[in-house]
TrEMBL record:
It comes from bacterium (Candidatus Blackallbacteria) CG17_big_fil_post_rev_8_21_14_2_50_48_46. InterPro entries: Bact_Chemotaxis_MeTrfase (IPR050903), CheR_C (IPR022642), CheR_MeTrfase (IPR000780), CheR_N (IPR022641), CheR_N_sf (IPR036804), SAM-dependent_MTases_sf (IPR029063), TPR-like_helical_dom_sf (IPR011990), TPR_rpt (IPR019734). GO terms for biological process: methylation. GO terms for molecular function: protein-glutamate O-methyltransferase activity. Gene3D superfamilies: Chemotaxis receptor methyltransferase CheR, N-terminal domain, Tetratricopeptide repeat domain, Vaccinia Virus protein VP39. Its EC number is 2.1.1.80. This is protein-glutamate O-methyltransferase.
Amino acid sequence: MKSSVSNQTSSDDPDFKRLKAYVLAQTGLAFYSNKDSELASKFSRRLNETQRLDYGDYLDFLETDAGKDERERLIQELTIGETYFFRYHEQFDALREQILPELIHGSCAARQRLAIWSAGCATGEELYSISILLQRSFPLLQTWDLSLLGTDINRDFLRQAEKAAYRKWSFRNLSEVFLAQYFRQENQEWHLLPSYSKCVHYRVHNLIHDDILSMAPPGGFDVIFCRNVLIYFDQVTYRRLISAFYEALQPGGWLILGPAELSPLSCEPFSPHALSRLSCFKKNRAVRYFKSSSFELNSPPFESDQISTPVSSAFSRQSESLGLPFSVPGLPLFLSETQPPKRSTPTESQTHLKPESLATIRRLADSGQLDEAEALCRQFLVQEPLNISGYYYLALILNAQGQALDALQALKQVLYLDHKHILAHYHQGLLLLQLGQTQVARKAFRNALGLLKLYPEESFLADSDEWTVAQLKAVLLLQQKEIA
């Protein structure tokens, strides 16, 4: 029996709205609040699998005791488990060089206990990376009470994590030496050596409905990892979880978020600690900044594939060499200046501008007031952490300030939230080209061209009221010819 629902009409269906509200309430996944077509596609797969007639029938089933297993399957359908070993290695630099030495020789020394929680751990790569780092870089911990807890709402993810067996994709950017040192291969899978999994345990936990303080050991956690999880929640839930994490940490403990959650203003009462792609927040401590450095010989041997530092930070010089237009419609400053525009001093009226106004952010940027535009944009994103246009504008502003790597990270966030954002692919390609990453830049340009084919040539692009599909297509075709 096949369901009678249609993806095209789902958003107008009252039962679809009820089902959507139920799912968002149960999971807190505000990420899906404006993605009806994607939700409808996922719902339809579950309706067909369970042979339910329509959304109302499916929701009635979910709310019964008999629907318990299906609730788990729906969660598996909705949650995203993108992770790999030593992802964002700068965070692990900071953990090894700064955070752990401070804890081990400070607040943890007397009790000789270290407790770390990975909230939203997915399939376990993050927690096992921490275990490897701890045991290889801090041998004195062998006599300590070491507890590494991983939790997730997705039971299937946790079952995979407990197996501690992974395919090659989980080790992207890592060397064969690393695999041989910490894993044994069986067919197409690599199994973590038992010595690195013995201190790791997993539990099902729903950050929205389950008590967070009950997860903490006596005295609290020393470190909580919650990377690329909070971006899926609304602002109210975000702030509630930040407060709960604060209470679950011991004094001097650390909260480590992902690059998408890099916003000190939204993490009070924590104190921020900044890295290039990492935000660390410390309980009851003053602000302190530090830089990451490369791993030592006894740490995981990374193969270097990081984006190199650009030879020139003048974005438009690269554009001119490719024969691009001198000025891009919509946000002219981002391509038209040969040097980042001079930053102005904020006036009294500017300091009272409403941060929610994207139009104000854009006007400030176009007039060369980049510091003010960036500040307002970041305030806006604190209030609207899932706003795609906000991250896109931030990327353009950062690039105009000569911060190419940070701009690239902001564009990654845009594409994480909307992988079909054409101008984000386009600007990503330009930045990668500027950074000397020609091959990856070509891929970004191909992505943009492929998406352009889906729209009428006279239509305007998202986040631009002047760029048409035809205009950008002409620029991209010229660009491809120049870098061929």
